From TrEMBL, chain A:
InterPro entries: DUF2452 (IPR019534). This is DUF2452 domain-containing protein. It comes from Amphimedon queenslandica (Sponge). The gene is 100634476.
Automatic annotation (TrEMBL), chain B:
It catalyses: S-adenosyl-L-homocysteine + H2O = L-homocysteine + adenosine. The lineage of its organism: Eukaryota, Metazoa, Porifera, Demospongiae, Heteroscleromorpha. One of its GO terms (cellular component) is cytosol. Substrate binds at residues 59, 134, 159, 189, 193. This is Adenosylhomocysteinase. GO terms for biological process: one-carbon metabolic process; S-adenosylmethionine cycle. Pfam families: AdoHcyase, AdoHcyase_NAD. InterPro entries: Adenosylhomocyst_ase-like_sf (IPR042172), Adenosylhomocysteinase-like (IPR000043), Ado_hCys_hydrolase_NAD-bd (IPR015878), NAD(P)-bd_dom_sf (IPR036291), S-Ado-L-homoCys_hydrolase_CS (IPR020082). SMART domains: AdoHcyase, AdoHcyase_NAD.
Length: 191, 434
């Protein structure tokens, strides 16, 4: 008896017609009907070829993208090249001024040079150059040797030609200002 | 020259004035003679109206001299009498007080003359009327290049042996146009400054320049005058064996009897390793001596001018390597080296700080007295070369006794009568040699 009951509830033994749905309702397989199928998928849309040259356009796009990438990269690299060029110029300038500073430091000088002071370079008749405390004006415009130029000794031991002193002071002044505004004032009481 | 654009001063670095002032205060404590002058003559201002152009090593001690002169009423303009001897902080401190000073350590020869020329004229267009000189460069410059100023100059006082030799020469030729006081030969100057000053400052200069060990070395001192005596004694006290070169038989005998070996430079050149010239003469150390010297021999001059060592020969024939300012090592043609200090100029001022204050107080008190005497008693002194009276010399010495804790013995009436001198001095006849 128990075997029989079990057999009765096996679904595969039931026909599709008697397939239970929700316990009481049942679904039936209906024959294929063209109109209904057409409503579900539009074959017109599904089978439409938008562009018969799709592959070509893909290739074109790839090429265009390459060009874009190349252009962008070139653009980016151009900035770097510019920077390199600028840095090269800077380096050249620095080397030149270093050379000048070194030459000036090697000029004969009997006194201890003090940073912040202006000294005057002269050349003797034998071709040796030397630093003097006296400007051509202080010689009454008639110095005993050939005047080559006046330079200010900076605190980093570099030399600034007389004509550039104002500019350099302005630069140093604004740098100093920037440093001061970036740093907490030392006057402020420490908590 | 134009005076309208005259600089108020020219020094290396005016920022060093405060440091200079501190050292001046220290020096004042060691210069009782000058402080006594300020106390004694400060209120009466005997130098009022005097426009003194001074040409003397611009050191801290000189700063005390300058401030003594101004306190006595003088207007002062100053230059240094040696291109290396200026102490920049001293010059700065003096410049800051408003005194026109033109001096820095390491002038060129042309700048040196420029500095002296700046002191001849006053900003109002007036000129100097007194000279205080050391070595005679200012005196010579005025006599040769600015003779138009001579009638306005009432007198000059000369500090050093070399300057006196110059004045004597000028007198003989009839070129001296100004009454001159020989401060150098005041006993309290030459027997102190030259002797005890150099005794301390020579070795100071050699040591600061080279850090050389003196003990056991053979040293030569050329010239055994007051300066040479001080130098030799000092070198010997460090344990050096000292040779002396002399031309004067009396002084050579003195040196020998002090226990020094007296020999010629030709002989000494091969034996010594440190050479000191103190002759006041020229061409003492020459090429033949350099070439005979041991490797790295040290050459130092302490005579006033840079003519005792033949630096010109070294410059043209040897390869120069500057170790530091005022210390040059020359490679000779024979491959050996000599080390020249202060380019053959005064080593104690070029490589060290010159003489200590106390001994300079002796010299400078004489300078002040000479200036007062020439300015206030001008009529007493027609053109000629004069000494300060012995009484003043003794006064200068007296002013320095207390500082050293000296207790002076006083003559009794009986003793004074026996010696035939006054109880207050002068104690010695003028010919006494001390």
């Amino acid at each position: 008896m128990a075997e029989r009951e079990n057999k009765e509830i096996l679904p595969f033994e039931k026909t599709p017609e008697s397939l239970l749905l929700g316990g009481s309702a049942s679904a039936k397989i209906v024959p294929r009907e063209e109109t209904v199928t057409q409503q579900l998928v539009s074959p017109r849309l599904v089978h439409k070829h938008y562009d018969p040259h799709d592959l070509v356009s893909l290739a074109a796009q790839v090429q265009q993208a390459d060009e874009f990438v190349q252009a962008t990269t070139t653009g980016k690299l151009q900035v770097v090249v510019d920077q390199i060029r600028y840095l090269q110029e800077q380096a050249h300038k620095i080397l030149l001024s270093a050379k000048r500073d070194a030459q000036l430091h090697h000029a004969a000088c009997n006194f201890v040079k003090v940073p912040g002071k202006i000294y005057h370079l002269y050349e003797k008749k034998n071709g040796t150059s030397y630093f003097s405390m006296l400007s051509p004006e202080e010689w009454g415009g008639n110095p005993p040797n050939t005047f080559l130029g006046s330079y200010k000794l900076e605190f980093d031991r570099s030399w600034t030609p007389l004509a550039e002193i104002n500019e350099r002071e302005k630069d140093i002044g604004s740098i100093h200002k920037a440093i001061m505004s970036a740093m907490p004032s030392s006057d402020e009481p420490q908590s | 020259m134009s005076t309208s654009n005259k600089l108020p001063y020219k020094v290396a670095n005016i920022d060093e004035a405060d440091f200079g002032r501190k050292e001046i205060v220290l020096a004042e404590a060691e210069m009782p003679g000058l402080i006594m002058m300020r106390k004694k003559y400060g209120p009466s201002k005997p130098l009022k109206g005097a426009r003194i152009a001074g040409c003397l090593h611009m050191t801290i001690q000189t700063a005390v001299l300058i401030e003594t002169l101004t306190e006595l009423g003088a207007e002062v303009q100053w230059s240094s009498c040696n291109i290396f001897s200026t102490q920049n902080h001293a010059a700065a401190a003096i410049a800051k007080t408003g005194v026109a000073v033109y001096a820095w350590k390491g002038e060129t020869d042309e700048e040196y003359i420029w500095c002296i020329e700046q002191t001849l004229f006053w900003p109002d267009g007036g000129q100097l009327n007194m000279i205080l000189d050391d070595g005679g460069d200012l005196t010579n410059l005025v006599h040769t290049k600015y003779p138009q100023l001579l009638p306005g100059i009432k007198g000059l006082s000369e500090e050093t042996t070399t300057g006196i030799a110059n004045l004597v020469k000028m007198m003989k030729k009839g070129e001296l146009k100004v009454p001159a006081f020989n401060v150098n030969n005041s006993v309290t100057k030459s027997k102190f400054d030259n002797l005890y000053g150099c005794r301390e400052s020579l070795v100071d200069g050699i040591k600061r320049a080279t850090d050389i060990m003196l003990a056991g070395k053979v040293c030569v001192v050329a010239g055994y005058g007051d300066v040479g005596k001080g130098c030799a004694q000092s070198l010997r006290s460090f344990g050096a064996r000292v040779l002396i070169c002399e031309v004067d038989p009396i002084i050579a005998l003195q040196a020998a009897m002090e226990g020094y070996e007296v020999t010629t430079m030709e002989d000494a050149a091969t034996r010594a390793s440190i050479f000191v010239t103190a002759t006041g003469c020229m061409n003492i150390l020459r090429s033949e001596h350099f070439m005979a010297m041991k490797d790295n021999s040290i050459l130092a001059n302490i005579g006033h001018f840079d003519i005792e060592v033949d630096v010109a020969w070294l410059e043209t024939n040897a390869k120069k390597d500057t170790i530091k300012p005022q210390v040059d090592r020359y490679e000779l043609p024979n491959g050996r080296h000599v080390i020249l200090l202060a380019e053959g100029r005064l080593v104690n001022l070029g490589c060290a700080m010159g003489h200590p204050s106390f001994v300079m107080s002796n010299s400078f008190t004489n300078q002040v007295l000479a200036q007062i005497e020439l300015w206030t008693n001008t009529d007493k002194y027609p053109v000629g070369l004069y000494y300060l009276p012995k009484k003043l010399d003794e006064e200068v010495a007296s002013a320095h006794l207390e500082h050293l804790g000296v207790r002076l013995t006083t003559l009794s009436d009986q003793q004074a009568e026996y010696l035939g001198v006054s109880k207050e001095g002068p104690f010695k006849p003028d010919y006494y040699r001390y």
